[in-house]
Amino acid sequence: MSAPTPIRIDFVSDVSCPWCAVGLNSLETALARIGAAADVEFHVQPFELNPKMGKGGQDITEHIAEKYGSSPEDQEKSRAMIRQRGEAVGFKFAMDKRSRIYNTFDAHRLLHWSEEAGKQKELKHALFEAYFTNGEDPSSHDVLLRAAEKVGLDRAEAQAVLSTDRYADDVRTLEQFWQEAGIRSVPAVVINQKHLISGGHPPEAFEDALRRILQGDEE
């Protein structure tokens, strides 16, 4: 049996992006299918869809109408499609509980810190669940602390991060790096720092792309 091929995955995303929740679950399904063929090094990378969002957030229907010009009817169709895509990869969207969109900068700082403990993916899942399934505010420190505790991170250490501006410069530097690399929408999956897969694709699409990349990078 051949040794697994080392592969680095940078998952560039935002906590407030529904397609990122779909994309993460879908990507993990694809990686499970690939199995021992790949030795994966996984990094969650920051991207803010609304970096200037103020405290308290904004009504989600109003925000999407202003940003994308979508009518309430179009938005409802989009939400129905997202719910279906989420169900297909084991993620539950409770759209009726998500009435506002919020600033996510502190969530990204906490995610950056969680990498030290090897809990980035776990925390990312917990934050997606808090916002999209439970309808909680991902800018709330209480929500962030509960998510950190849920995945086994130390609450006091998480509180110390959130009560200061720790990792703020690191997150902004990374955000700028990915923007300068050409990332304009998320999720963006960057493989081995040179292959880009954009969007919340079904598992089959991720699996096919990953197998092709693995084969090409081995040659």
Protein model, in words:
It is a single chain. This protein has 219 residues and is of the alpha+beta class. The model has no long low-confidence stretch (mean pLDDT 95). The longest helix is centred in the N-terminal third of the chain and has 17 residues. It has a 4-stranded mixed sheet with strand order 2-1-5-6, sandwiched between helices. Strands 3-4 form a two-stranded antiparallel ribbon. It contains 9 helices and 6 strands, in the order E-H-E-E-H-H-E-H-H-H-H-H-E-E-H.
Order of helices and strands: EHEEHHEHHHHHEEH
Strand order of the largest sheet: 2-1-5-6
For the termini, the CA-CA separation is 17 Å
Over the alpha carbons, how many angstroms does the gyration radius reach? 17 Å
Beta strands, count? 6
Q: Characterize the overall form.
A: globular
Write the layout of secondary structure elements.
Layout: E1 5-13, H1 18-34, E2 38-46, E3 58-59, H2 60-68, H3 72-88, E4 100-101, H4 105-114, H5 120-133, H6 141-150, H7 155-162, H8 168-180, E5 188-191, E6 195-198, H9 203-218
Parallel strand pairs: 1-2
Antiparallel strand pairs: 1-5, 3-4, 5-6
Helix pairs in contact: 1-9, 4-5, 5-6, 6-7
Keywords:
219 residues, alpha+beta, 4-stranded mixed beta sheet, two-stranded antiparallel ribbon, 9 helices
Describe this structure in a few short sentences.
The chain has 219 residues and is an alpha+beta fold.
